[in-house]
Each structure stands twice: as C-alpha cells, then as structure tokens.
Specification:
globular; two-stranded antiparallel sheet; 3% strand; 9 helices; mainly alpha
C-alpha cells in the first residue's frame, strides 16, 4: 500500500492521517512486511510512510489495543506471533460466522457485485498467486459479509480474517484451481438465492482451507 503523504491531506485532520497510517501498517503486517516478533518502531514506521510520528503513534496504539501488537517488558512493541492453535480456533469461528453471512447474503448481492467477483476468480485462475490474489480473496469474503445486511456480523468476520491472515505458511499455489472452484460454488448459491446451499458452500471452502493447511504442516 502506498499511503498519501501528509502534504496531500489536511495537516489538521489527525484522525484521517491516523486512519491512513493504521491501514498501511496493518497491510505491512498482513502481507508479511512486518513478521511475527518483529519490533515496531514508531520513528521507522513514520519514515517509511512519509508521515509525522503523531498519526503513526495513534495507529500503533490502536493495533496494540486490538491485540495485533504486543508490548514487551522493555516497553518495545512487537508484532504478535500467531500460533497454529489460535489459527484453528479462529478458523472454526469463521466457519460459523461466514457460513451464516453467506446464508443471509443469498439473493441479496447485486448483479454487478457478482459479475465483479467472477472476474476476480477468472483473474486468479489465469495469474495464480499474483500480488493481487490476497486482496482479491479478502474483497470476495468482505463483499459477502457486507451483503449479509448485518454490520456487527461483518465486522466480526473482518476481525477474524485479519487474525487468520497473520498466520504465516506462505502462499498456496497448488490450491489455486480448488479455491476458484470453491468460490464459484459459493457465487452460484448466492446468485440462486439458496441460503442453505450458500452456507454449505462457504463452510466447505473454510473446511478445505483448514484441511489443506494441516496437511502441509504435517508434511513440513
């Protein structure tokens, strides 16, 4: 992510700047630019983002409150490592919440949103795990959660997806075609308006993520 510089925003709008800093810093963590256990320096992050330290300080405080950053006894802040056990617990809750979101979203997504999702799936199948793949996947799940019509449910899903994204196992190029097929099955159920099928398709997708990752871990 390339955030706008402080000069391009109203210098007095600290809230807007801290939101930009938060999004940029979170992207660094989710994309692996800052690894688990790595020290997060306010000064270095500010220099990296081309911002003053005040909005970066607010962004770091927010990430600490959310549990994404850990404060050590020395006072240093580090990216919180994410364990396999935590990942599996979060994935189990995602299975329940995203299944319900898909059930509620069935028949409610706009044709343009469905068409856009199909284009993204075709792009993933053509290009494999390109740099845009993670964002496309995030957008796919976010669109369904939003279409559920329940903002609390959507916010909970977003938080859980952030947590599971922090578990590092590298990219999964051998699952690209399967992911595309699973996403298409979810879309078809959403388009048909069949909530039960949409729930099953979403939960099958998440079950397969869990199964595949466990299989890879046991092979390491």
């Amino acid at each position: 992510m390339n955030p706008p510089s402080s000069d391009s925003l109203d210098a007095g709008d600290d809230r807007k700047l801290s939101t930009v800093a938060y999004g940029a810093l979170l992207d660094m963590i989710l994309n692996g630019g800052l690894a688990g256990g790595e020290v997060v320096s306010e000064r270095q992050i500010a220099a990296r983002l081309g911002m003053s330290r005040t909005p970066v300080r607010e962004a770091i405080r927010r990430l600490e409150n959310e549990g994404t950053l850990d404060r050590q006894r020395t006072g240093a802040l580090t990216v919180r490592p994410y364990s396999l056990e935590e990942f599996l617990h979060a994935l189990a809750v995602r299975r329940l919440l995203e299944g319900e979101a898909a059930h509620l979203a069935a028949g409610r997504m706009a044709p343009a949103a469905l068409a856009h999702a199909r284009e993204r799936i075709a792009e993933l199948r053509r290009n494999g795990m390109a740099d845009t793949a993670r964002q496309n996947d995030r957008d796919f799940h976010t669109a369904i959660a939003t279409a559920s019509g329940n903002p609390v449910l959507a916010a909970s899903i977003e938080d859980l997806r952030k947590r599971t994204a922090m578990f590092r196992l590298g990219r999964l190029p051998d699952r690209v075609d399967q992911v595309c097929n699973e996403h298409l099955a979810i879309l078809e159920a959403l388009e048909s308006g069949n909530g039960d099928d949409a729930r099953v398709a979403m939960q099958t997708h998440i079950d397969n993520v869990r199964r595949h990752l466990l299989r890879r871990l046991t092979a390491i």
